[in-house]
From TrEMBL:
GO terms for biological process: intracellular protein transport; vesicle-mediated transport. It comes from the Eukaryota. It comes from Rhinopithecus bieti (Black snub-nosed monkey). This is AP-1 complex subunit gamma. Residues 690-796 form the GAE domain.
Amino acid sequence: MPGQRVFLHSRTLPVRMVAPSLKLQDLIEEIRGAKTQAQEREVIQKECAHIRASFRDGDPVHRHRQLAKLLYVHMLGYPAHFGQMECLKLIASSRFTDKRVGYLGAMLLLDERHDAHLLITNSIKNDLSQGIQPVQGLALCTLSTMGSAEMCRDLAPEVEKLLLQPSPYVRKKAILTAVHMIRKVPELSSVFLPPCVHLLHERHHGILLGTITLITELCERSPAALKHFRKVVPQLVQILRTLVTTGYSTEHSISGVSDPFLQDQETCGAEEVQILRLLRILGRNHEESSETMNDLLAQVATNTDTSRNAGNAVLFETVLTIMDIHSAAGLRVLAVNILGRFLLNSDRNIRYVALTSLLRLVQSDHSAVQRHRPTVVDCLQETDASLSRRALELSLALVNSSNVRAMMQELQAFLESCPPDLRADCASGILLAAERFAPTKRWHIDTILHVLTTAGTHVRDDAVANLTQLIGGAQELHAYSVRRLYNALAEDISQQPLVQVAAWCIGEYGDLLLEGNCEEIEPLQVDEEEVLALLEKVLQSHMSLPATRGYALTALMKLSTRLQGDNNRIRQVVSIYRSCLDVELQQRAVEYDTLFRKYDHMRAAILEKMPLVERDGPQADEEAKQSKEAAQLSEAAPAPTESQASQLLDLLDLLDRASGDAQHPPPLDPSPGGALVYLLDLPCAPPPPAPIPDLKVFEREGVQLNLSFIRPPENPALLLITITATNSSEGDVTNFICQAAVPKSLQLQLQAPSGNTVPARGGLPITQLFRILNPNKVSFRSSPKARPRDSRSHGC
């Protein structure tokens, strides 16, 4: 109506406020300020939603800012794959700020598993051709980080052109990109081979370092490149000599060492290789190159300051180079002496490196390493477990016939105080060394008894059988052994191997224990009741294992024929164990009780002393049987060719010759079966044998085993076989184990190998020494079907 006011009421709708997108710095502060992981996820989810919306809107101005925030989120471990295509758009942009973030995103978000990485190949090619140094640097960094094999093949010509650009900034990055390309596509070696020779004349240390890295990669992957760059060894030697003699330079020196990164090798993630490693590769198996660098290596080894860690690193690489090339004997002794000085360093890492390196050299330079034996023994007292373990391994490797007494004293003292995790290794090492180098049987027995008394629970399973066989074969030491073992058993019955040996010895030679006429030990008055009571104590002890109780029960039974008193006590103990819960012990007790009750007239004959081990008795019959079987097999086998039969004869006849009475074998009968009938059974004559040629016994997938033979003139029955394992494949051979077996008439000793990993691409070979003794000069025959076992990755 006119003049009347009309009021219209409207409802106000709520407006939804959207939080603005954060800047990168604000995002970082908010994420760091989150008190819980849930709060952090909430902040990241909200910001990722803003980033997705910005990408959908196609905002070209702030795209690089959004991608920078997404990269930070990716670094925290959250998904950021939706930003891959934005990286491609920023790389294709003409603005440097966009390219910088785009290339960074490509390095973080793209790899060979994503097909999207191939889409930037053309952009990288264009950027490399622009001539703008910052852009070229970004493109080269990206290519060296995530470039696939396809990208490397496509962009290799552009990178080759940049290697000779005047700008040091671009050349350094181009060289590192070439290293990545060689690792990805080794066949590109021919592309980068010519520029490397020119780059060696550079005075810029960064470019020179990258060039040496590139040359090393080429030499490791291409035999042609290795042959080509051996011509530049004098130039490399001159470069290193200049670094050593120019003195202190504030621009390229670290801790007073002139550019240790060029002299030394440091490996952290990406492999950096310097001059010493390159010289080591070039001098390996090459006499001329090795001779060229000998004087320089001596100069580096004597003039390098070792007061700082950088100098120690240079010296260590020098030692590795000396040991890997054909160096002079005096230079190798100098290298071992450097490692000996490392053992006196206060840094545990340096001492560990020295012990590990000496352990690798002990087989090839044994006498030089022996000079540092006191220092190595002192390292046994290291508190660090890894150091003491390495020192123990090296100490055991240094034991020989001339120092076995002194070394055993040191190792036995260490056994008493060593950590529990080293006790088993130490005890086993002492037993093996004593068995190998024992000067007398009595010393051998005393050594084993000391180990059993100190660490009996940690010895090998065959220690009991070996000691009982040793004591049984030493008839003149029976009285001495039984008294020593009785005293040890009376003091301690917790060491089970010791208790088992003592019970066996008391059962066998209990009569000698009671006689008391042993002149080699203090007089001991023992009566029968004390001996029986001690064995009963072993049977009743809760610490005794079932096997130990079996030894003690058998010892009591044997004493029933060796003691003069009444056997009623022994019969009562035996009858008690007829109802024992252990089946083995119960069976023994039932049989022994039956022997008492029904066959008492045969008990003395059955329980006689065990006979001495005779190596020429049953073993000779067994070998004759094997020889007969081999002859039968040879009749049915086809005849090998003359060359094959000759090689087989040379290999198998090594152990059957004697230095003073060997002659050349007559020609093999080419008729079927004639080639193998006379193997190892040929007549001998006075002329000394010719040197035994080396043999290649195994080769597969790049792994090769070679045998070299030495027969010491002073011991014609001994043959030393050195096995050398090399690996020319691309991958390391780990857990390397080499085993061998010989007939029972021979004695085989396997020394520890120089390592358990055969390095790839012709690295430092592994060596192991076999000592084979043929004391009785027994002739034997070999079956033509015998062959070595092998395994590609774990042993042979």
